Amino acid sequence: LDSQYGTYVWPCAVVLAQYIWAHRRSLPGKRVLEVGAGVSLPGVVAAKCGADVVLSDGEELPRCLQSCRRSCRANRLPHIPVLGLTWGRVSPELLALPPVDIILGSDVFFDPKDFEDILTTVYFLLEKNPCAQFWTTYQVRSADWSIEALLCKWKLRSILVPLHSFGADQEHLASSSLPGRHTIEMMIISLAQSDGT
Fold first, then answer.
1. Per-residue pLDDT tens digits for 134-170
2. Residue 52: which H helix or E strand, with range?
3. CB-based burial label for 95 (10 Å; 0-12, 13-18, 19+)
4. Coiled-coil region(s) at which residues (predicted)?
5. Domain range spanning residue 158?
6. Per-residue pLDDT averaged across 171-178, rounded?
7. Could you tell me which residues are beta bridge partners of residue 158?
8. Cα radius of gyration rounded to whole Å, the chain
9. Is residue 4 part of a domain?
10. For the whole model, what pTM was predicted?
11. Domains in the chain, number
């Protein structure tokens, strides 16, 4: 596979797009940021459902940023801003982001070395937007890879969303020509409440 993962539609993106579609009536007017957007399927679906979307991927990944722009043009959404944001780095672009209601991330928990940087960025965004949520799908690649300790460290809580609750438990939905097993999970991450929950 190409080292720039964001040039593929991964099964997680399809599952997250299904969740967005299932909640489409709540999206008009919502401010949405997709992180690690790559091909941008979830962000494009959110925009088509009436959300005000910003797409982002690593500033050091120009092909991924081009892929975001290409997806926008192909879907007649040329007005969607595409930003270079690197996980774990507080940049002028991150500081200048407008308020968000929903952060999207499909398969961003791909490489364990990035997990803390991702959650650092998510925590920063949630602190700036305390009512926001991070909707994320991930592929179970190893029983040894977990973000639970990092969620505790960053005082974040997560709710597992069963795939059957939004019609994403069908085998064909996350099928892929890419190699490997594709067991997908979805969770919603938010700030832990001040009462310790």
1. 999 988 766 667 788 888 888 999 999 998 898 887 7
2. strand 52-57
3. exposed
4. none
5. 11-191
6. 56
7. 189
8. 16
9. no
10. 0.87
11. 1
